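Narrative progress, year one. The postdoctoral researcher (J.K.) led the effort to move from monomer predictions toward full complexes, under supervision of the PI. The following entry was the first complex the group processed end to end, covering 1348 residues in total.
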Amino acid sequence: MIVVMKSLATPGEINAVVNQIETLGFQVHLSHGTERTIIGVVGDDRPLQNHNFEMLNGVEKVVRILQPFKLASRDFHPENTIVEVRGVQIGGPKLTIIAGPCAVESRSQILETAHAVKEAGADILRAGAYKPRTSPYTFQGIGEEGLELLAEAREATGLPIITEVMSPEAVPLVGQYTDIYQVGARNMQNFTLLQAVGKTRLPVFVKRGLSSTAQELLMAAEYVLSGGNHGVMVCERGIRTFETATRNTLDINAIPLLKQWTHLPVFADPSHGTGKWDLVAPIAKGCIAAGADGLIIEVHPRPEQALSDGAQSLKPERFVELMSDLRRLAAAVGRVL
Amino acid sequence: MIVVMKSLATPGEINAVVNQIETLGFQVHLSHGTERTIIGVVGDDRPLQNHNFEMLNGVEKVVRILQPFKLASRDFHPENTIVEVRGVQIGGPKLTIIAGPCAVESRSQILETAHAVKEAGADILRAGAYKPRTSPYTFQGIGEEGLELLAEAREATGLPIITEVMSPEAVPLVGQYTDIYQVGARNMQNFTLLQAVGKTRLPVFVKRGLSSTAQELLMAAEYVLSGGNHGVMVCERGIRTFETATRNTLDINAIPLLKQWTHLPVFADPSHGTGKWDLVAPIAKGCIAAGADGLIIEVHPRPEQALSDGAQSLKPERFVELMSDLRRLAAAVGRVL
Amino acid sequence: MIVVMKSLATPGEINAVVNQIETLGFQVHLSHGTERTIIGVVGDDRPLQNHNFEMLNGVEKVVRILQPFKLASRDFHPENTIVEVRGVQIGGPKLTIIAGPCAVESRSQILETAHAVKEAGADILRAGAYKPRTSPYTFQGIGEEGLELLAEAREATGLPIITEVMSPEAVPLVGQYTDIYQVGARNMQNFTLLQAVGKTRLPVFVKRGLSSTAQELLMAAEYVLSGGNHGVMVCERGIRTFETATRNTLDINAIPLLKQWTHLPVFADPSHGTGKWDLVAPIAKGCIAAGADGLIIEVHPRPEQALSDGAQSLKPERFVELMSDLRRLAAAVGRVL
Amino acid sequence: MIVVMKSLATPGEINAVVNQIETLGFQVHLSHGTERTIIGVVGDDRPLQNHNFEMLNGVEKVVRILQPFKLASRDFHPENTIVEVRGVQIGGPKLTIIAGPCAVESRSQILETAHAVKEAGADILRAGAYKPRTSPYTFQGIGEEGLELLAEAREATGLPIITEVMSPEAVPLVGQYTDIYQVGARNMQNFTLLQAVGKTRLPVFVKRGLSSTAQELLMAAEYVLSGGNHGVMVCERGIRTFETATRNTLDINAIPLLKQWTHLPVFADPSHGTGKWDLVAPIAKGCIAAGADGLIIEVHPRPEQALSDGAQSLKPERFVELMSDLRRLAAAVGRVL
């Protein structure tokens, strides 16, 4: 941490800052410039995050140098973390493809889709039983029945399943069925929920919030990790920008950036990232070429009748095509599918 | 709702869209242009929000015309809603000033602040017992003890209190103490929480999410209203933009816009909206001049020692000054303080 | 400037950075932490802005401490700059109101508007002769004829005039007519244009770009100032965010922030900042309450027939009302109108 | 175009809108709903872009249906445009790689880089002689001498050259040397400049503005095309968002979206799009996988000494590696390099 003093700060003001830092048990390095005095704190000053040096008289700004995450950081854990789910290795050389409908709608819909994505080569089945929706008047998911149908689809296909958990109270129930908890974009900073899944030992898949930085995404992962749950994956799914031609703006830069910063597996969601089914395939390819460890893709047998997110869902036949394209691409970038 | 067909859409594709709309019980108006056919749906088509006409062959885009909120809309409730809390009328000609520290830290801190803001003329006392924090390693609030101290401060000063509730499970406990539930920016789309407070009959103060539109803020209010709870207030508190010189960008446009769209009281939070104590006073004045019904302001007796948000907290003496400025200003814009 | 080394940086890499800084004539302060070494540069290191210390081996990041502007900074010029234009003092206790149509359309239109805004109490007349338009197919302004009509309106009313200059080549011609050059938002980083107006001695009114930070706005001002032209005013006019309910998001925070950073007069443009005539009055008031030195407002006698920006233009009778509201408000915030 | 009337609009107000549209020579379709009346305009209503129906009494909003660009649209020109520059075919199955330093700094620097990128397989040499810089105090390019050195590098290597033109006055001079005009991001809405290059017959490479939508980028292209110059290429180069970990956010969604909307060649700039040399290679691959027709990449023999943009420049050896990776990737996505 570096405290930059105002150009007119008095020696007394400078001393007050120095004293407060030293009182908290840290050493300082003073640099008296011709325009400004700069006070550097020596060592791991994360414990000082709570303190408001900005408020002391004569302080112009405080610059924090260290990344605030620790358990999620590659500095402290240089090798890639591999998360294992029912025999699927996530985060290794083999790419992981998660696919399925936005929501479980009916027994036949989820079974049909599960078989289709399994045949096309997907590794994990996704579908929501509880849906976070902007409007209280739209379809909110079919609830526990959906969890049961997902478990049945797992039985039928052998695919592990992932589904969203929306509140701390629902963690035990959802955990009876799912193999992976999904924490959705709108809940990325639902800290009570992050703490609740952090206390379990099921893997957690955290999606980046619409207006969250890559650093904040890793802080959300840090919440789960600091609960003792090491099975965390993070997922870029599009951020909100001024561009309205697409539903969101998939931030492809975040993929290699996150791979540098963290040892956790990094996914991308081209369905939510674009919001348009005819952009899903090119963006899916782009994300793999940029280094993602896997993808999560919405597939629905009849998107035009889907109860949510139909506009961004692929039909099974297009998903088959995409998987075949991705296989060629994976080989070209040194991965396997 | 208007469905715009692609320039090359076939008559069969156009008929398919028309048939689907009619099957759902709606009438259409067809407009065959020289470049495009446009299909308009007649009437209140909110029930069609679930349907993915975007996915039908030949469809270029779907334009939704009606605002998706109804109970929150001024169209359906032209008069201002007045929310009454222990004798304080919120949303009428008198401005409502909510003030207090970011967090309850200790008995003396909250009592000292409560007396100070009361004397300065504040109407309601704010402070968090549970704090949503980006990092799991920083101060998370003192919990139920904080609620007890808030209740004690209410006893001592007569000020009603508002405090944040962070999860559906905490709604009953927090409701034993508080007069108003605050739903924080990061929980604005925590739909399970919105439903939980919607089932209570305590007033709810909903803060706009960092990347939520004004329309989405009213949809969050709609969640609470549709649960049967009519005591809802909304609050502009700054959105996330590319500008990093301030913590957030307070969207002042949203204040008169929300006043046009909704009958609910509209607040502004210049503390979070700017993140810098020396910008709080000018922005507080700006928001009142633009038509806000009230303000929520962070005040702390010793901001430099505050356990959270010190950089944006006013000292009591500056709050006194601001209140006196606001009194003159209120008169100039036809309000009372 | 502070250079933060990577946690694994070698002593050799650290020395290389130190040597390069010293070779460039600067002294360093070294701070060896337990996790990172930090290298501070002593003194006014603006000349080092050109250098890419980020590229040296072992460097994690470079933090620049000093604001990059100098002539625009209040640090170097603590008193407010007053720009005088034909007897109008801009930047002093009296607020300056600039009003007029988006574009000069005809002799009668500009004369009618000029008289109307003069009577309502405006200080300066605005109108474009050359219009920057997103589409090549829409009205682009009437050119030099518009400049002549503006000059005629000045004769008729005594109001000084301001009009936009869009290219360096047009600077001499526009300068024959106008009292103030306007540099529009889309040209805020047209550096050739900034240099061209910087060489003249007519005052320059620089509007913030749609995606420019407040710091970059002052760097644009710095371009003009560094050419020797001291008559610079800056104007907040709305930035581009994810919110689409308004044309732009007027960044009210920027007003008091700019007043802290710079001695130049700070304006606001509620017409472009909102894009909706029925939001102009509340936002105009908000900007004055937040400390703006003046406003620029679009007024058109028949907005529904305006050739550009009609949707955000006030009719003269509404402008009269607004001026009367602003007079009361100005008094309440210690200004005069 | 669709005009949505307010719910309380009177028959007189509706008639007034209808009459005005008909007076302008267009037919309308009226749709009287239970909540709103909607007025659709039949046919190509681009000429109505100038008109402010928003201002008529009783109008709630105006929805424009047609894309505002025409010459740039794939609707009007379904086949890909191939731009030919000295034997290089841009926009066909073969990818086009443009590479070189940010700026021409010296004879040896540009010649060394030109030979290096040529050997690595680049098709076109880039470098700036005139540099748009945020600060007036930083390196602004070496001017005409830079153009001469670029021409010499073309002689020496056979590579066509591209360089930025910053003002209409400079168009003739720059045109004496360059093979392609580059219009930079900050000048994307410098309409005078777009008109000036539109009058020439040299190809124009238009970079997307930092806060410009994909639609506005094509409107900038439309300015050039409407001047009669058909050799236009567009380039995604990163937009400005709230994320500060990277210099910009490369909007990969825009690549397949632009390919759908326009027949013009679509490029990507991973150097500016990320601002960090160690993200350039993964993002370059991502853009090609997503369907870009080519890339523009900054390469500098000694990035740590570069006078601008060093932090995002590749060393020649890394560029060689990237080209070899791209060759494998191109084959996997059905392109050639």
